[in-house]
Amino acid sequence: MIKVLFVDDHEMVRIGVSAYLSSQPDIDVIAEADDGTQAVELALDLRPDIILMDLVMKEMDGIQATKKIIEAWPAAKIIIVTSFLDDEKVYPALEAGATSYMLKTSKASEIAKAIRSTYEGQSILEPEVTGKIMNRMRTGQNTALHEQLTEREKEILLLMAKGKSNQEIANELFIALKTVKVHVSNILGKLEVHDRTQAVIYAFQNKLVE
After folding, report:
1. Cβ distance 94 to 66 under 8 Å?
2. Which residues are registered as beta bridge partners of 52?
3. Where are the alpha helices (DSSP H) in the chain?
4. Which of 17, 25, 37, 131 is least crowded, fewest Cβ atoms below 10 Å from its Cβ?
5. Where in the cell is the protein located (predicted)?
6. Rounded CA separation 70/72 (Å)
7. pTM for this structure?
């Protein structure tokens, strides 16, 4: 079961989405929170597999909560679920450490799919968010950064671009999962990006993969 913490200040949203998610055979909504402060406390206490995080809330907003959770627990996987697509929300949320970014207009089934994909190590972004990141990267990208990558790191970046999780990459290359994680960390550092999604976008932008 994928353990989920659902954070949203609208009770009816929580009730509706939680009911659908709980009906899934592989998802268990173990707790709910209606503000960022409570979200941080529950996340660090329960250590759920996935955190669904609203952005605009009382007490503490979703960006602050995401940042505090990631600082205390870097392995946390946080999916932003919001109505906002403006730059002041998207970039700070991703920079704070959010793994995926969804809109509340998404169907509950799409959110469930995002939960499964994020749990498997992928990043799910709304098309509009991907476009924003690509435009931002296009305005000052250092195309020489990828020249620092080793052949093995380029191979792993290609598999990342194909949507492979760390475990799938390890299985395909017949190497240890721990080794893959080290390579991924090195790739992010060399490309000067924050997460796998930005690394993949860099790869497409610089035509390292088709």
Report:
1. no
2. 6, 79
3. 11-22, 36-46, 62-72, 87-96, 108-119, 127-138, 151-161, 166-173, 177-191, 196-205
4. 25
5. Cytoplasm
6. 5
7. 0.67
> Is 32 in a helix, a strand, or coil?
strand
Topology (CATH) of 140-205: Arc Repressor Mutant, subunit A (1.10.10)
Contact (CB, 8 A) for 53 and 65: yes
User: Mean pLDDT throughout 56-85?
Assistant: 93
2-134 — its CATH code?
A: 3.40.50.2300
Per-residue pLDDT tens digits for 79-103: 999 999 887 888 889 889 999 999 9
Do the Cβ atoms of 2 and 28 come closer than 8 Å?
yes
Q: Grade residue 10 by pLDDT with cuts at 50, 70 and 90.
A: very high
- Burial string for 117-153 (b: 16+ CB within 10 Å, else e) reads bbbebbbbbbeebbebbeeebeeebeeeebeebeeeb
